[in-house]
Specification:
alpha+beta
Amino acid sequence: MTDHLTVATWNINSVRLRMPIVEKLILDHGPDIICLQETKCPDGNFPFAPLRKLGYEHIAINGQKGYHGVATISRRPFLSEEKIDYCAKGDSRHVCVDVEFAGSRVSLHNFYVPAGGDEPDPEINDKFAHKLAFLNEMGERFAAHSGSRMIVGDLNIAPYEHDVWSHKKLLKVVSHTPQECDLLEAVRAAGGLTDVMRNFVPMEEKLYTWWSYRAKDWSAADKGRRLDHVWTSPDIAGTATHMEVLRDARGWEKPSDHAPVLTRLQA
């Protein structure tokens, strides 16, 4: 029997403020699972009711007031849930659920990696040092575990030349510095993971998921970055039959500065 699984990942930049566009994503595209980042919502205030009304009965959250926060909402039951406090800072930046896909168990990790501040020097910028430490811990944990895995989320790094609007102009800008890009690649390699988005979009083509609020006309300027990612273990990489960045969502009413990414698996 064929199994289909569509996963969306989206930095929503406040889930309560932007519930109307979360609902629009659901009504327009109906993903089976939605992984949200930067929910900015303590667990007790999470909007369970409207999401369950729309058919998302299974919700795993790791939230805090005003900052960070991740949530995975699903039509499909969870076999297990786990939250890891990366770098032991008490930040809500990770949640993992296991789901069944094609008769197998897949671990779906939802991440919000620290942005890293403005200065790309860990000696003078604690936020950048935290970002590097967070990534190093990710690599260590990925290397220590195996099995079917899907890693999604706002990883806050655009690693390749055409993941940014100008490679040369952004080499010293946090999110595209060589140190970060090399480290993110090392993290992915440590887990033996496949960059699913770049399987669909050739390296020589531009690929963005984020456009700054600062641009008066973000679409015309098109100074984007690919900060959101979808990685899978090799055993399920070949089941990815479709990937789409919903660019139009960046222009919805009261938008996030990120666009959702949809990935469809079929086996």
